[in-house]
Amino acid sequence: MVPDRNPGRGLPILLALCILALCAGQAAARGPAISDIQPYDTIFVYEEGLNLTGLRNTTTGNPITALQKYQDGNPQKSLTKSIPVPDDTDFEVLDLLVGGDYGTYHAFSRIDGVTGQVMIREPEIHLDVVLANPHHNERLEGFSVSRNTKIAFKITSPDVGASYTAAGVYPATVDIVVTHPGGAETTAIGGLSLAGLNVSSTRFYTDDPGRPGPIVLSGLREVGTYSVRAEWREPATFGAYAPASDPVTFAVRNRVGIDTGTPTTPPTVTPTPTTPPTTSIPTTPPTTLPATPPPTTETTPLPTTPAETPLPAWAGTAAIGLAIILIGRRR
């Protein structure tokens, strides 16, 4: 049985999707300047000079006096934090007042009550070192690579890259700082500058189109272990107060691949088989064979020597004479 179609049911669904799309469009609606905050925008600790007048009640225009956080983000539930707003035309998001309690805050007026809402976040930045395109999935942290290897740095900033923009401009920038084995620091490798990179997306690589390009490690002066980190440059308050990324390390070696040292050991072992031929082990058996014939000593006829000792000639002559005398007497 074919179910009956209800064409009227699709219209409310379509309208709901349109409303959601409009709300999503408002989520990144800073403007006209980067300091002009609108409902559903994301603001960051360490920002200063923010204009919150866009959060006022559009009918009364009364100033915003506080940003308030409620349980489960619901103004009908209990208040969990309140950040005072002394001047809603020049507001500074103090890290001390936020105290790490990030999330949804509602603009509040003493006269109008709750008006618009914003998100408060920390400007996080993360860095990783990978092989150059098309091998971005190969991480190099903690590994040794040869000097002819091409690498790239991966920058991730989920909140700033998505929300810190106005009129299609992404003013936030970062520097990639490379620390050499000897301790020297630089933001350039092989003529490529890694300073002032625009954070225009939640994730990008330094060899993406429009970026500095792949980095050949032959541009590094020293062999050894390198440390790399990403630091905020703009806005200035991010550079002054926002934490840098955790450092990552990799080692540059003259050989290709991981520095294991195993290839050098086989040549040193090969001389050992040549030593057995030089030993006199095979020559000793022939020398021991002639030493074994003590049986030749048994052939020396020691018992025959008494039989061989004849009587002296005079004894034989005397015996013959004695025999003649005895014969003569018998006659």
Task: Describe the structure in your own words.
The strands form four sheets. Strands 7, 9, 10, 13, 16 and 17 form a six-stranded mixed sheet that branches. Among the domains are: 21-121, no CATH class; 126-253, Immunoglobulin-like. The chain is built from ten helices and 17 strands. A hairpin with an 8-residue loop joins strand 2 and strand 3. The protein has 331 residues and is α+β, with helices and mostly antiparallel strands. Helices cover 24% and strands 25% of the residues. The chain is elongated, with a radius of gyration of 50 Å.
From the structure above, extract its key features.
331 residues, alpha+beta, Immunoglobulin-like, 6-stranded mixed beta sheet, 5-stranded mixed beta sheet, 17 strands, 24% helix, elongated
Q: How many individual helices? A: 10
Average pLDDT number? 80
The N- to C-terminal Cα distance equals 169 Å
Radius of gyration equals: 50 Å
Give the name of the CATH architecture of the domain at 126-253: Sandwich
Described by its quaternary structure, the protein is single chain
Q: Give the CATH class of the domain at 126-253.
A: Mainly Beta
- Tell me the total number of β-strands: 17
Strand portion:
25-35%
Q: H/E element string? A: HEEEHEEEEEHEEEEEEEEHEHHHHHH
The helix/strand class is: alpha+beta
**CATH homology group of the domain at 126-253:** Macroglobulin (MG2) domain
What proportion of the residues is helical, as a percent range?
10-25%
Unreliable spans are: 1-5, 14-27, 257-269, 274-318
Described by strand count, sense and barrel closure, the largest sheet is: 6 strands, mixed
CATH topology of the domain at 126-253: Immunoglobulin-like
Q: What characteristic shape results from the CA principal axes?
A: elongated
